[in-house]
Amino acid sequence: MSESPVTRATLLLRLRDANDHEAWSDFLRDYGPMLYRFVRSRGLQDADAADIVQDVFRRVGSAIGRLEYDKEKGGFRSWLFTITRNRLYTYFEKRKKAGPSGNDTAQLELLSQAADDRNELSEQWELEHLRSLAAIAMKTVEENSDPKTWSAFRITAVEGRSAAEAAKELSMSTGAIYVAKSRVTARLRAEIQRLEQEEETQ
Amino acid sequence: MTVSACPTKTQLKALVGGSLPEAEASGATEHIGGCTRCQSVLESVAISGTAILEGAGSKDVPIEDLVGQAVGALPPSDSAYWKAVAAVSGSVHGQDTPNVDASVTHLPASEGGESNTSGPSSSAGPSDQSPAASDPDLTPTIEAATPVALPFLKKSDDPAYIGRLHHFEVSRVIGRGGMGIVLEAFDTHLQRNVAIKVLNPEYAKNDVARQRFCREGRAAAAISHEHVVAMHQVAREDQGEVAFLVMQYIEGVTLEKRLQEEKPMPPSEAARIAMQIAAGLSAAHGRDMVHRDIKPANILIESGTERVKLTDFGLARATDDVRLTKTGMVTGTPLYMSPEQATGATADEKSDLFSLGAVLYEMLTGVSPFEAPSIVGVMKRIMDETPTPPVKLDSKIPLPLSELTMALMDKNPARRPESAAFVAETLAEIVTSYGPISPLQVPAVANTSKKLRRSGSHRLVSRNTLRAAWAAGLIGIASLSAAVIFLATRGEPAAVAQVDAGPVFPSTVLAGNPGTVWAVDFDPSGEKVVAAIEDGSVRLWDVKQQKVLRSFDAHRGIVWMIQYHPTKDIVATSGNDGMVKIWDSESLELLQEWDAHSAVRKIAFSPDGRRIVAGDHDGVIHTWDIDSGRPLASVTQPGSIYSVDWSPDGRLIASVGSDKIVRIWDAETLETRQTLLGHEGPIYHVKFAPTGTQLATVGWGKTIHIWDTATGLEDRQLVGSSGDNWSVAFCGDGTHAVVASQDGKCRIWDLASGELVTTLSGHESSVHNVSLEPVTHQIATSGRDGTIRVWDLSGLKE
């Protein structure tokens, strides 16, 4: 596994250093798209979502130096979730004041539940987080996979095309495509798990 | 094809793990190709080998749901997300200062190209997506790669020039910034060299930005000072496509360039330059103009004379709406930005002083005080860190100069030196302590501070005197507001920034109007509002449903005013095209129109609804009979008229405008009845109280004037607004006045006590118009942010 274990583990420490530009861009790279997708999943338009993401970034930027999050409570990611949730809450509250819609009320209810409640919101958050980890994991796994095996995975899992199509394109048997896909899947799974554990110990 | 038995789950696991013997593996693989059951078992084996993915509620998430293009994709290339990321990650190292925001505006295009052409792994996830703006070299690259396109230039007759704009022969491109292109040109009429700043075509498409560019340019033209680049002209190309400013051409270099050559500068030279910057600022501040973007790139040093000239006054504001997101996030170069600007609060004179401090610090020490590799890093340092005092970095720097620099950069605006004039004078003391200098280098300073006593012309002001003077500035509301700002930014992430204390009134927001909304009025039912919009259109909104019911083009250019007739179903509009039009409010049929021949900012119906009055740009007041269309009377006053109103008893007409005088006329004959003096600047709006003889006027300057029309005397002044005021209205019984202000707030005053009752906050920039619905206690406000807000104030009437 070539990349980043050290990088990710110390990202938070590095973020506290205003001069560590790389840490900041790593953070944006690793968490930005996830935040955006999560916020969009609440039914926000692109511009509003971008605003919220930017605002979350800004809060992270200005608060991380003073951050003393509780490691027991899920660490950085959960802290980020709280910030995002609060921002969304403010957003929906404003919108509700302007003229409530059914969705706004439902979203507000969801957002006002306790942070550690298992609900659709936190599940969506975790899912988006897994998606970002998957994206990171994919890079590592691709580097360590045989190109043909990887292509079989890419065509079927990423591009969503059929195994038959992949078989034709790669001159492999359909069975081989399935096997290749599941091999990569298993490796990805292991890599995602590793990334998760690493993050837990941050 | 052979039909074989399904492999066991153990075999499948081994197959995925690569540990199944080759002979078995090939058979199983072939089998799987034709067996859908085994395909799905294989998939579940692969995804759920151990209990991972606990986070997602212990469910096994199909791999497609984690890596599929549709779910894991990066935000689309045209998403506002990229701008947001660029804004927070933009490099500020070794920047050509004005180019930073150019890179922001260009970013989505380059992002788009990248994600469209890159490989599958990048389209699936963010892993190899390094934010483009993290590359410190990116900004110049983009600038260099973009050829300078000057489509607005006409061909010049003289081959020595690259083109022609109006009567200006353009000789070269001096530079490009985020806001536009700067050209050197020759004014063929006045036979002199000028610099022309053309608004970036990207912004020029945006009417709001263009209007503002011109407006700020006009405001800057009012500043005449040896340390401010003179603004000659604000112009538009014939079709109105290109807006440009014509300025004094300065032969010289920017301070940014100078600093690249020599850093740090000798303290005496740094002090001299800072002194002249402060002097230029004091001239602007004296006219209530804030620069907002003091940085080395905006400071020119004239060749030969070494005289300092400030440029781009107020222009940072011109593109505010384009560069700021809705949450008020600031983009651009924050290296010299004040903490209050970094938090998105309004910049004022003290913000310019902070920036001056940061520039002075860099001149003295050679380093920018808040330098950090990212915009967020810089902003964080601006808010949290106090730089090392210059004297500690270099003992040759005089202590008073070091202390002044640090005082300018105080986080709390109230603790900074009290004015630019004060700073200029203090610096003059320091400069002269180095020895006699040419009187030419000692700048004229506007409104010399009373507090500062210069003890002999060559003596330094003692540290105690300085401290006392700064402490004096501490008193007042400035410190209070600063404290609130800091609470908001330093609070926990959960904290919601609530800048204004006091009761919060609900408002319905009608957003998305295509530009500044200059006027708004309730329909007779109080359920709908009509809006006069900058792009020439009129919109009818249903307030409750927040829906646009009708929209039509009413005027060429800005619609300045819209008002319902007091009794009939008709509505009147006036526009920049000089037309006053009467429409059927149901059918939108044009019933009547008059040509005033110059822009009409305000109109008013007579209370009986039979006549209408209009005041135009050339200072002419017109009255017309609505039914017959016949002109009744007209009179001309000096300057431009910005507002007119008709008294409730129908006998008087009031007019105000650029000449700072309130005039009251006989409504029939338009003979002068009263002339009210007291405004310090142009007056933007006049309104008769519904009962009695009171009249309210607002405008340039923060004071609201209440007059008695019978005596011609001033009844009262209302103080407390923090900006110029655009519009005033009375409540139904005349006990309260509602005032819309430049600072985005709307304030309600009790006229009996003269006290501020409440402040309505919500608009993101200037509120231009306020209109009341007396029955339902609603107030409609509209402004530069393109929104209309309808406030329910029923809670206020105890």
Automatic annotation (TrEMBL), chain A:
Gene3D superfamilies: 1.10.1740.10. Keywords: DNA-binding, Sigma factor, Transcription, Transcription regulation. Residues 29-97 form the RNA polymerase sigma-70 region domain. It holds the Pfam family Sigma70_r2. SUPFAM superfamilies: Sigma2 domain of RNA polymerase sigma factors. This is RNA polymerase sigma factor CnrH. It comes from Stieleria magnilauensis.
Automatic annotation (TrEMBL), chain B:
It is an enzyme of class 2 (transferase). Residues 168-428 form the Protein kinase domain. One of its GO terms (molecular function) is protein serine/threonine kinase activity. CDD domains: STKc_PknB_like (cd14014), WD40 (cd00200). The keyword Iron does not apply. Coiled coil: none annotated. SUPFAM superfamilies: Protein kinase-like (PK-like), WD40 repeat-like. InterPro entries: Kinase-like_dom_sf (IPR011009), Prot_kinase_dom (IPR000719), Protein_kinase_ATP_BS (IPR017441), Ser/Thr_kinase_AS (IPR008271), WD40/YVTN_repeat-like_dom_sf (IPR015943), WD40_PAC1 (IPR020472), WD40_repeat_CS (IPR019775), WD40_repeat_dom_sf (IPR036322). ATP binds at residue 197. It holds the Pfam family WD40. Residues 92-139 are annotated as: Disordered. Keywords: ATP-binding, Kinase, Nucleotide-binding, Repeat, Transferase, WD repeat. This is Serine/threonine-protein kinase PrkC. It comes from Stieleria magnilauensis. The lineage of its organism: Bacteria, Pseudomonadati, Planctomycetota, Planctomycetia, Pirellulales. The gene is prkC_35.
